[in-house]
Design goal:
The structure is a homodimer. Chain A is of the alpha/beta class. Helices cover 46% and strands 21% of the residues of chain A. In chain A, strands 1, 2, 3, 4, 5, 6, 7, 8, 9 and 10 form a ten-stranded mixed beta sheet that branches. In chain A, β11 and β12 form a beta hairpin. In chain A, α7 packs parallel to α10, α7 crosses α13 and α9 crosses α12. Chains A and B meet through α7, α8, α9 and α13 of A and α7, α8, α9 and α13 of B.
Amino acid sequence: MSKANVVVVGAGGVGVVSSLSMYHAGKCELSMVVRSDYDHVLSEGYTIDSCDYGEVRGWRPHNVYRDVEEASKSGKFFDYIVITTKNIPDGPRSSTMPVLCKPFLESNSNIDPDRLTSIVLIQNGIDIEKELITTLKPEDYNNYVVLSGVEIVGSTKVGKAHIKHVGTDNLSIGAFDPDDKRAIESAKKFAVIYDAGDKNHVEFDERVRYSRWKKLLYNAAINTTTAIVGLDVPRTIEFGYEDHTKSALFLPAMHDIVNIAASEGIVIEEKFIDFFVNISAKRMFTPSMCVDVQKGQLMELEVILGNPLKVAKQNGVETPTLTFLYNILTIIQNKLKEQNGLLKFDEKTCSIIH
Amino acid sequence: MSKANVVVVGAGGVGVVSSLSMYHAGKCELSMVVRSDYDHVLSEGYTIDSCDYGEVRGWRPHNVYRDVEEASKSGKFFDYIVITTKNIPDGPRSSTMPVLCKPFLESNSNIDPDRLTSIVLIQNGIDIEKELITTLKPEDYNNYVVLSGVEIVGSTKVGKAHIKHVGTDNLSIGAFDPDDKRAIESAKKFAVIYDAGDKNHVEFDERVRYSRWKKLLYNAAINTTTAIVGLDVPRTIEFGYEDHTKSALFLPAMHDIVNIAASEGIVIEEKFIDFFVNISAKRMFTPSMCVDVQKGQLMELEVILGNPLKVAKQNGVETPTLTFLYNILTIIQNKLKEQNGLLKFDEKTCSIIH
């Protein structure tokens, strides 16, 4: 059998390092959908200053496409559609998961209706697969499966097709549905494809939902708070009243997450709370939602806070701190939407124009 | 007896309209301390587009001083020292109440140790008189008294010595200490001096603390929230998740204030909660703390939230919403302090430099 065909959608820090890992591993034909940097990547390739791959200059994946439409019309069957964009279901429709994935599922169905397609969501948050599955019913296409990727990597896009990669790529890959044998098998195959030896770490994740709740400890508590105050993590902690950033914001927000997870029977160990608070206190770092606000971009608010709060509501879990953060951040998200022309406010009637 | 001598310190929207009211009333010799606009006021006077005084052009008070030092060296005894600056006890020391008032108390003592001095604080918040009284003990000067001014006025400084005055000046004046007969008498005298007939409203306030808690309903709940999200009041309400800006932020914050006031035996009627929420929903207005953040200036955080929370702590009152707002705003206040060079943060050690 020929090599697997992989297409990566989303060419930010995570997408490019993931692509480089798979290219380096040499076990797939690697395509990328590169929107804003397309011309630059074609002519010059990528510049990647990498802690693991060295000074990479002029690197290109096997195929580069301008957008999802073009990639889906390439005549290739993509076994793995790897999405590394931000997941913002309340953002522009053109960037939502169903809209990004549909052209691939249709073209794959046309090329070979019996071959399995795996969509890999390397994204933050909980319940991120649901919008996809309810909008594009797997039985209507070729019974695709959705895989969960939780990636921890220090990499940032610092310029046109220029990536700074400072922390080794760690990927946990598994099936959102723990009872879906095909998905599990596909995730294990992907782990092999992704494995670039000593350049990265990849492991098959048997407990996807556990891993996602665990990562939410950080994102729901720390990422959110920094987005409200507009500061890196150490300043957010040190600028607080006495020790209240930790004791009255981070810790209770994390306990809210622990309680929601517990309502689903998932036990997140307390030690991870201390771990996340301690690693963040003395490391200069500005989390993604804070960066989004600073850049005037929408935040991944719904997958990081909105979805956990829906689970909390369903299961009757009290979440005072997360609810407060969500109430504040929803206002800020709508402010960003207005700035981006996605929402109109009429100052005469003092109401949103629908 | 000659006319009372009044000096107004603080030449923003409130200070200038208050000065104009007293000038118009004609019952005092009116001096102003005008810092940044001093030269302009001397040469051109004030431009005031006023809903009550019309198109005022080239207006000047009887005397203009460049700063508090200069005014206190004028040889005049000031019967009323009216402070309309922002009250930011955690801000630059040179702008704190004791530092602003001390030169006047000293010069007044030298001129006539037996004549009463009244300091009138036309400022937001609760317990704003305490810093003054504990730092400058009244018995060390000429037994000065401190009066409380709660002013509701629509006026903004829109340019150099240029004020836009859109809502009639309403002043409640009383004694912080309800048992101090001299202070009460002085407040009643000031009400007469301030009364400009049909151009403004002034009333003697028998229940200063009640009035201040009542005004805090608005400032502790609405002013604070808009400062966090950086939006006018209608957007802050309409951009919220469902009705949560009102139901989960404004109302519980106001109930926290009601509960703190109740712990001191002061009953704030529920109807004022609805009143403040309803008047703000459909009126385009950006409250002062939000304006401060937008301009990169320190907020009146301590007198609006810090002091109420101290009372709550003393009296064992739970204040979940106000505490949350305070925890967030303290971080933002310190961010503003860093931007203004009042605080230094060492990114190497991730700590504030003391």
